[in-house]
Predict the structure.
Amino acid sequence: MTSANDLTTKLEAVDARRRWLLASPALLTIFLAAIGPLFIVLAYSFLTPGDYGDVKWQFSPDAWIGVFFERDIFDDTLSLATAHVDIFWRSVKLALITTVATLFFGFPTAYFMATRNERSRDLWQFLITIPFWTNLLIRTLAILQIIRNEGILNTALIKLGMIQEPIQILFTDTAILIGMVYVYLPLMVLPIYASLERLDFRLVEAGYDLYATRWRVLRKIILPLAKPGIIAGSILVFIPAIGAFVSPSVLGGGKNMMFSNLIELQFGQGRNWPLGSALSITVMIIVMAALLVYARNNSAKDERHA
Amino acid sequence: MKNTTISDDCAVDIRALRKAYGAGESAFVALDNATVSVRENEFFTLLGPSGCGKTTLLRMIAGFDYPTSGEILLNGSDITSLPPFQRPVNTVFQNYALFPHMTVAENVAFGLEALGKPRTEVKARVAEMLRLVQLEHLAGRRTNQMSGGQQQRVALARALAPQPKVLLLDEPLSALDYKLRKEMQSELKRLQYETGITFIFVTHDQEEALTMSDRIAVMSAGRILQIGTPREIYNRPADRFVASFIGETNFLTGALHGVANGKAKVTLKSGQSVVVNAASDAPASGDVTFIVRPEHASVVEGSGDLRGIVEKVVYFGTDTHLHLRLSGGEAFTVRQQNGSVSGSAVEAGQAVAVAIAEGAAQVVRA
């Protein structure tokens, strides 16, 4: 009896060991690529800046104080870091406008694709993904060429006699927005397309049959059924947009900073790695909190419905 | 809007309707020269195999497709080119097409809200409709949590709620199992009776068409072959296809001579002759095809209309099928009711005489 029990426990132990061993490549990847770096950033945010960048292994809460407050250089008093708050709001604002704009342009595009016949749909999908194969920097520089004062856009408008002087678009928020909308548009189109492609267009017919006009069918049937795609697309655009780096630094000209430019500054010229780390974590926490609140609201609404 | 003279009791008037895809020689004609008048309060069925054009015709009445030529009139006014949301016509779709993101009540309210009815009226009407289809208790349920039969009822309530002039039903029962289908058939008849709305029903099921319809239009390959009551369609099919599509039939061919008072004599290969019904437009002489339903023929003592040898006897419970080879070589089936328990006295190999019931033989277009 006891020997049988011993055998079972022994076999179970072997089994458990084997399971861990088999899972180890996945666990190792997750640790090395996701959790590990996050802990390093977190640890750095509590250290003292080194003289030439890097960190000194000496605990200091200064970085976290620096995220929210600035120390007066004369009397050492703390005041709210308005520069950081401003840059953060700019980032949120630009990311939100980008999300809305990509939705505005992306939804009709996705609807167009989803209503083509099956063969040409693949072609359209392929065309949408082509920009992904080109380097982001090159795509952004191409936008710069179009919108700069001597660029195609201004030259054409002057030639057409619509304006006398070139419009200053480059190095403004508009330029950053144009760049971000262009770069993130496919991320909005593809998930919406995926949900519209699954849409049963007989439901649209049923809507028309029940006296709904085109606008009403769009509002009451197509949009609610495309909602998962719209949400996925918005998240896919909003999150990288809030942390966008290339568009603001190339098209914003360094004056119009977004959050990632600020972070970059701390790791570069600022030589304040702990502050950069603290800022990184701050933006991550805010985005995650926003998503969680949204997800909770949404699931609560669904439950009420059912 | 065109003003045309039509009779008052005509709900839907379809005139020379044609639908062709593509152009020229290669064009596919889905519907060809369809002309039919559906009466007020009628249960009208479009019957035919898949691809015969019945759904195309229905979709054009609903406004989902537009005809290549021809006219559709609803209570006398031309609706041929109106968009679907401007036609007082509602559809029950084959797979119901219920809105999955709405509750049962929201589905039923959809058409009324689109028409801009006041909130209280919508609420009352939704409740009334759900009562009509016996689903009051499921008003708050999502439609994807329901059985096929329940979804069917929601689809009916949704389509009937705005009180359409005509209800179009596109094979609504085909997705249900046999028992539920039978149940819904009588439910549909009851709803039509209670609401007094004209129903245009599309099906490929000949039995369903016969039991439910006031009148049937039999369609094949984009054409309407015959329009008539179920009895007319079954007993007096005008066309070979109609005769074979509905019920079982014996086809015989022979030489026709002399049509008088709608009757004529046809001489078969064996030399025997049969009195048949022939329409006045039938050819006065020459070879014709006529039909005899198996239950309209019987094996008799002495001399009948036909003679043959019994090849096979098949017992079906309520009746027995006798497969004969006639003296002219044609196959012929006789269906005998099993009126007594003693069973059929006829056996395979036996030579028998066959009598055809008065007026049962009918000449059809080949």
Strands of chain A lie at 47-49, 55-59, 69-71, 78-80. The longest helix of chain A spans residues 2-44.
